[in-house]
Amino acid sequence: MRREEARMGQEPLRLVQFTRSFHIGGTEVQVLELLRGLPSSYQLQVSVLEDAGPLMGSLWKLGHSPVAFPLKGSVAQPNTVYQVYRMAQWLKAQRAELVHVHDFYSTLIAVPAAKLAGVKVIVGRLDLSHWQGRARRAVHARLTRMADHVIANAQAIRNLLVSEEGLPASRVSVIHNGLDLRRFDARVREGLKGPLPDTGGAPVVVHVANMNHPVKRQEDLLLALAMLRHGGTTLHAYLVGDGPRRPELEKLAAELGVSDTVHFLRHRTDVPAIYTRATFGVLCSNAEGMSNAVMEGMASGLPMVVTRVGGNTDLVLDGERGLVVPPEQPARLAQAFSRLLSNPEKARGMGRAARDFVARELSLERMIRLHDALYQRVARGTGA
């Protein structure tokens, strides 16, 4: 008997998805996929801190108009308490059974509100808290412990929660992000939305990440490219993403003498099509959760060179689906690039294995199925 058939006659599970906003980001995309894919045995509501962002149109098309509980600046003010009270009252009025909250700032509102309203709550922990100071990490850890269950999207995050924050292992599940390969392939077929720099047939590495925070370590990529060039190897790089650090990275590329082969593409909406023009991909962060950029590179059939941090090793098995190097070691990054360039057949085999892994382990259907089972178990004590 299918799960959907087994639920016939039951009341829909009243579930609230709560995220900060619907600006472009991996978390927001995953929330949309859950809203799109969960079965009809749910009554879904959406709440946000800020009802804004370019993905709002996609949310409206799914028939959802989010309820906002704005923080309005610093969290250390009476408005935060007021929003907690407002949400608690709203949850009671909606007769909500379960709240799934996806980010730090939304957790500040959702967890105490759910507890006041007598509603079960699941906290999503989607990174290693590398961007938080000590005080925020302590608050996040305390609120996470108050939750009925916690979802980590990478094993490294689960390890942190259990070993450093003291959560019981039984209250933390790992559910990897999901990727809709059919939709991804359709975006590939749509082609480029704008021109790409001409590389004259030279190999290309693609790096997709924002330029807001040093954690992404684009400078290590630039240093690796300069090392290769000094050794006589020309490798072009497409850097997709933008942010306040871009001018200093452009300056560094000029100082290293690689400005002619490093191309800053800024924000692009055609990343799948850009990946198809690459020889391989790279993500060289010194901290990371479960990277959608790496998943999309793998879905493109590329071998990915990644650093041994966070969820990267959940995705890339060294030597089989790409190469894994230590963080903040540009020389090791350059060696990995050389290894792929010197053995193109082996590199293509890694890319095929990466694509197969995404299809097998990171399907959207699998991600939704695991969330569905967990929601049923936490809210109603049923499900596998």
TrEMBL record:
Glycosyltransferase subfamily 4-like N-terminal domain ranges (all copies): 24-183
Domain of life: Bacteria
InterPro entries the UniProt entry points to: Glyco_trans_4-like_N
One of the Pfam families matching this protein, by short name: Glyco_trans_1_4
Gene3D superfamilies: Glycogen Phosphorylase B
PANTHER family from the UniProt entry: GLYCOSYLTRANSFERASE
Annotated protein name in UniProt: Glycosyltransferase
